[in-house]
Amino acid sequence: MCFYVRLSRALVGNLLTRIWSDLVDSIAMCKRRCIYRCGMVVSGYDDVGPTNEENINMDFDVDQSDLANQIEDKPWYHKTDRRKAQEMVFSGGNGCFLVRPSSKHALTLTLWYNNRAYNIPIRKREDQKISLGNRKPNEKFFETIEDLIMFYHSEELILFSRGEKTGKCALRCCPAQVSKVQRHVIIELMPEYIIHI
């Protein structure tokens, strides 16, 4: 009899711990959503660093059309709009990113950091190298977009808003990786209820 009491006490304790953990996670997610939505209403976005007036040219004379063709099969590339991209990276937290088509540029890097999304243009330079944001003196450049992603996966990207530095963040994960982790956690918690996710 004592064995069953101890076993049921342990099971109830574990169940309460899981419920508490889920409740705390839900509250944190609601808080992040509120901060995100309020931030979208209040702030205007300018996610590239300060530039001099003579450097504003975005290399419009360079053909940017083939950039997306290089990365269509990558898990971090999503054919989505700005709003949906911001919702997708929000779910992954700081460092969650994706690359998407843009209405103003060939491609945009959307990155979540510190309760907001940053939308940073990706462009091809005149020398066919890849760079972020507006043209700058001594800017970092890469052979391919994949090289750019790999570099900022290990090095932090300096982020700006309205010409002011707001922080540094590395590219940690993409929404496809986040959904795989969430799927794994759900299967671990409720394997008997999962048919196909």
From TrEMBL:
InterPro entries cross-referenced by the UniProt entry: Immunoreceptor_sig_adapters (IPR051751), SH2 (IPR000980), SH2_dom_sf (IPR036860)
Protein keywords: SH2 domain
Residue span, SH2 domain: 76-152
Highest taxon of the lineage: Eukaryota
SMART domains listed in its UniProt record: SH2 (SM00252)
Any single Gene Ontology cellular-component annotation: cytoplasm
A Pfam entry, by short name: SH2
Protein name: SH2 domain-containing protein
Organism field: Cimex lectularius (Bed bug)
